[in-house]
Amino acid sequence: MNLCEQTQGTARKSPSEDDLVALAQFRSDLRRFLAFSEQVAADHGVTVQWYQALLVVRTFRDAKHISVGELAEQLMIRDHSAAELVSRLAQAKLVRRKTDPTDRRRSLVVITRAGDRRLSELAAVHLKKLRDTRGALLNFFRTATGAQ
Fold first, then answer.
1. Is residue 80 domain-resident?
2. Mean of the per-residue pLDDT values for the chain?
3. What sections of the chain are H helices per DSSP?
4. What is the CATH number of the domain that holds 53?
5. Other C-beta atoms within 10 Å of 131: how many?
6. Which domain range does residue 110 map to?
7. How many CB atoms lie within 10 A of CB 17?
8. Number of folded domains in the chain?
9. What is the pTM of this model?
């Protein structure tokens, strides 16, 4: 069952004009934020995918470790793409690989100090942007839920 089929059962009534306007505004705000994120990442010498990967590696299981397969799942990419991504991040010294002590065939990914610093810089800028635009996001949820 795909996502569209999963959500069809939850739609109860046709959206109002206000709902459609709120959705359009939310989508616009989301696209602007994603474009902002790409630019900020580039300004810090990484791709937005690198930033997303660092964020996942740092937060998954309290930053103890993440396998390449788990990273692929979290980023919604294929395993081989995640492996290539980890190789590029490791080459940039933002993450390192270590052998899984319970399964020596499996490689685990850990963020480095340099990766943690880069992530902190990027996250601070992203959080400021989100806080600055919080009103737009809250307005969407107020409108979508009918709250005043």
1. yes
2. 87
3. 3-8, 17-43, 48-59, 68-75, 79-91, 113-132, 134-145
4. 1.10.10.10
5. 9
6. 17-145
7. 7
8. 1
9. 0.81
